[in-house]
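Continuing the series of single-chain predictions for the mutant panel. This is the parent chain; the variants come on the following pages.
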Amino acid sequence: MTSIYLILVTKGFTTFKNSRQLSCYAGVAPFEYSSGSSIKGRTKVSHFADKKLKSLLNMCAMNTKKCDPELKLYYERKLEEGKHNLTALNAVANKIVLRIFAVAKRNEPFVKLIT
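Parent structure:
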């Protein structure tokens, strides 16, 4: 369901020039809150995001952290850094978007590094 929705939203991955734009649209790219030279508060995601896509990616991230050893290590590393559970989950969702965009643009299958 997520793959079909992504293909429809991105019009076959032709709408966005890079993965960062797709991450922003999906609502999984964090933005720091800054005022002048000081950084205040936590990083936040855009409230203009496609909420349906964000929820689908969060469901994928929850399943991926159980099945994919590489992303599981990434998730656990974020938790060890002191990140909140949902922030770490959002980071995993962002990694998924980056992987999807890379596979779609390169037109090559995904190669798993850790078995």
